[in-house]
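Two quick folds needed for the group meeting slides. Do the first one here.
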Amino acid sequence: MTPEDERTGHATGRGCGCVVRERGTDRLRTVAAVADPASTAAALAVAVDADALLFLSAATHVFTPKDRLHGSRPLLRMPAEQTPDARLPQDVRARVEAAADFVAHTGGLAAIGPVDNAVGILQGATGTVIGPTSTTAPA
């Protein structure tokens, strides 16, 4: 694939099948590619100048990893600047990092919470809010 190729992508849940039209020949060919869905969602939200980015899941919050003394506990808020150093379960790390990238680029609100209560996430009633250090409550 060269920079002068015209690129269009078709995103799927776990990857991206890209179709490339070669300049000069107009031939179409498929190029194998892999895209992280969380990073793709964050990049799209930045591109469309979204005010908020929500990752909806079966869980009510992002939870800390289990430890011997305390078990796991829900995280209500997390400053975007702290995400690189946070001890998080591997299954949510990509979404948290993508949310932090969105916040860093836009100053907007990002959150992870239950699929059946997106309004509750925006109101601060449920979910984990990832925002700038000065975030005290979701908008």
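Then this one, please, same format:
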Amino acid sequence: MTGEVNTSPEQASYRCEALAEGLVCETGETARYVLGTFWTISPVLALRWLGGQALWIVDRLDLVDHLAELRAWYEDRESQRTAHAHIKGGAPLLVVVPDEDCTYTLSVRSVAQDPPSAPPGARDGAGAGLLVPGAVHP
């Protein structure tokens, strides 16, 4: 028996991240903070975690403009089915929410989609992922 449990070569794995990026006071430098990460083999659990992080962020910050949009996206069954099919197919999902001083990025990506040289949380090129309608995207 090997040390690997509940894994198979064809089974997908998903890395989820919640990041905050903004200027450091009086330095002019930008800093990136990891607010949370989550690994799962389930696209359903990946989306559930992503939605929970989105709601956690907007509930604690005064992101009134994006709160309704993110809630609507998370609660819309058709949007969730589309996002599920998208990430299950191996494509990344990005949710980018700007704030006054900071930008929050929530992402789900297949581990197989991350190039070995890319650091966790590296941004894809334009058009690489499914972006949440209503949110601002880089």
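Slide caption for protein two: The longest strand covers residues 30-40.
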